[in-house]
TrEMBL record:
Alphabetical list of CDD domains matching this protein: serpinP_plants (cd02043)
Keyword Signal among UniProt keywords: no
Keywords per UniProt: Protease inhibitor, Serine protease inhibitor
GO MF annotation: an example: serine-type endopeptidase inhibitor activity
Protein name as catalogued: Serpin domain-containing protein
Pfam families xrefs: Serpin (PF00079)
Family: Belongs to the serpin family.
UniProt-listed PANTHER family: GH10112P-RELATED (PTHR11461:SF211), SERINE PROTEASE INHIBITOR, SERPIN (PTHR11461)
Domain Serpin: 16-387
Single GO cellular component term: extracellular space
């Protein structure tokens, strides 16, 4: 399967996860998560599975073989998640870890995939007598991998003496806008909450042309991040429903179109009238197994003989994934770096110039996506329902 088709399938899975999380689990909360990193963890589980469990994982991840998944994951880890900060691009940190009960050892074939494809740290630990210490170890690992930015991937009580295996990941993204916002122009305005109340929050503004496109019942804004020395171009897209309470129906709309994000991209800059984007900072974590079960991925969490390819032991007959913990962080503020090179890679479509200015006032709940534009890979998705709530 070619990379583009694999990424398109992966984005379809991302949208499935996101719409379930946003509409069923946390419809009224600020959310940020990386569907891609959950995809990578599930791919890792698939690499240690067989039989019906493997079939169910492959079906859920919309792919035919674990080789396809491994190829996609290794390319994404090296291509998309390489840190770009040394060359002026976004700062990226992404890490996987596997913790295994010390009385068990990983099968050589599985360990090779863990080490080489997923670049995951594998650790032998004593779950039976030191479960709390192991949880602390996982949390310290995550904190170290993200330079102290992600703390407590595993909440208290997540690990106990019957745990045999943990998969965790930690990631962090920080990009500077290619055109920064002038801090002195940031002012407080009302943001309309879903319950009808209002809060005063700081909004950034700019009079420069912006990548905005209008559709029937929503608008899209693209805010490119400063590009480093490589070809990657990361952009935050803000999808703003026209209706103040339109977020829920908008989330339903994207769930019914697998290539929604690819089909709704603002390709050209337009003059803006009133232009207001709230500053926000979100840290969000959750345990993914319940959501995955509700979406039909049941067998990896059920026991049985599905995960026999992970460890060299008859215990492999009764292993199951106890939990998949995920935590993400995003911060949006005025920071950015202006550089002439930032617009060099943009190919515009010529079109009839329209003199009318477009307003883009994000003063009510909206969806956001951080995406790498060359490949179309969605790194983060989330929603802002109250920028005031950290």
């Amino acid at each position: 399967m070619d990379l583009q088709q694999s990424i398109s399938n992966q984005t379809h899975v991302s949208i499935t996860l996101a719409t379930h999380l946003l509409s069923k689990k946390s419809p009224n909360s600020n959310v940020v998560f990386s569907p891609l990193s959950i995809h990578v963890v599930l791919s890792l589980v698939a690499a240690g599975s067989k039989g019906q469990t493997l079939d169910q994982l492959l079906g859920f991840l919309k792919t035919k073989t674990t080789d396809d998944l491994n190829a996609l994951s290794s390319q994404l880890v090296s291509l998309i998640f390489a840190d770009g900060s040394l060359s002026g691009g976004p700062r990226l940190s992404f890490a996987n870890g596997v913790w295994v009960e010390k009385t068990l050892s990983l099968k050589p074939s599985f360990k090779q995939v863990v080490d080489t494809v997923y670049k995951a740290a594998s650790n032998q630990v004593d779950f039976q007598t030191k479960a709390v210490e192991v949880a602390n170890e996982v949390n310290l690992w995550a904190e170290k991998q993200t330079n102290g930015l992600i703390k407590e991937v595993l909440p208290a009580g997540a690990v106990n003496n019957s745990t045999r295996l943990i998969f965790a990941n930690a990631l962090y993204f920080k990009g500077s806008w290619s055109e920064k916002f002038d801090q002195s122009k940031t002012k407080e305005f009302d943001f309309h909450l879903l319950d009808g109340n209002k809060v005063k929050v700081p909004f950034m503004t700019s009079e420069k042309k912006q990548f905005v496109r209008e559709y029937d019942d929503f608008k899209v804004l693209g805010l490119p991040y400063f590009q480093g020395q490589d070809k990657r171009q990361f952009t935050m897209y803000i999808y703003l429903p026209n209706a103040k309470d339109g977020l829920k129906s908008f989330v339903e709309k994207i769930s019914s179109t697998s290539d929604f994000f690819d089909r709704h991209i603002p390709h050209q800059k337009v003059k803006v009238g009133q232009f207001l984007i709230p500053k926000f900072k979100i840290s969000f974590g959750f345990e993914a197994s319940e959501m995955l079960k509700e979406l039909g991925l049941v067998l990896p969490f059920n026991g049985g003989d599905g995960l026999t390819e992970m460890v060299d032991s008859s215990v492999g007959q009764s292993l199951y994934v106890s939990s998949i913990h995920h935590k993400s962080f995003v911060e949006v503020n005025e920071e950015g770096t202006e550089a002439a090179a930032a617009s060099a890679g943009v190919v515009m479509l010529r079109s009839i110039m329209i003199d009318d200015k477009v307003d883009f006032v994000a003063d009510h709940p909206f969806l956001f996506v951080i995406k790498e534009d060359m490949t179309g890979v969605v790194l983060f998705m989330g929603q802002v329902t109250d920028p005031h709530a950290a």
